[in-house]
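can u do me a favor
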């Protein structure tokens, strides 16, 4: 596969991944599909860091647009575009890693939930992970199904941002080859 087609493929692949990150982070603001928790500030701390919106979303979407366009034929075999795609892909890696770390910490610490009369994160700083032992889940009384909700969305963010980081890292290498060799797209008949 030539560098131009590879850049085009990577750019197009990053679009749905960035959209998935944004949607997952937005959904995390509404546990139990209720806006009241967000209004009252009863949201898991890591959701407020907006790793999926800022990191896996915007910081990957903007590079995705440039990477996608770097695969097009330009003057000098689009070497300048491929060179710039290295920098944009590096920004994408940073954004994806930010989203990955925030989601991983959110998954590790567990959700903010109501325990009888008090709000807190009951699974934070425990020796045994709540992910492996459902016996502790009864502690969270509100919002309903908050543990499953957080596990599903934070796990999705971890997976998506991991793929984003890999694709952007591949584009950094691809951009280097494209900068040195061109995009290898044929111009067709003159």
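np, heres the sequence
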């Amino acid at each position: 596969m030539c560098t131009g087609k590879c850049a085009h493929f990577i750019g197009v692949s990053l679009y749905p991944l960035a959209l998935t990150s944004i949607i997952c982070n937005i959904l995390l603001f509404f546990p139990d599909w209720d806006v009241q928790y967000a209004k009252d500030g009863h949201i898991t701390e890591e959701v407020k860091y907006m790793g999926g919106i800022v990191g896996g979303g915007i910081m990957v979407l903007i590079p995705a647009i440039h990477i996608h366009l770097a695969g097009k034929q330009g003057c000098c075999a689009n070497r300048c575009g491929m060179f710039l795609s290295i920098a944009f892909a590096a920004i994408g890696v940073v954004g994806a890693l930010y989203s990955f770390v925030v989601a991983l910490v959110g998954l590790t610490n567990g959700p903010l939930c109501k325990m009888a009369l008090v709000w807190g994160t009951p699974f934070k700083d425990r020796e045994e992970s709540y992910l492996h032992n459902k016996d502790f889940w009864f502690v969270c009384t509100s919002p309903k199904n908050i543990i499953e909700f957080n596990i599903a969305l934070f796990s999705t963010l971890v997976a998506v941002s991991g793929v984003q980081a890999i694709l952007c890292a591949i584009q950094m290498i691809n951009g280097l080859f494209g900068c040195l060799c061109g995009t290898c797209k044929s111009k067709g008949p003159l």
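The radius of gyration is 21 Å. hope that helps!!
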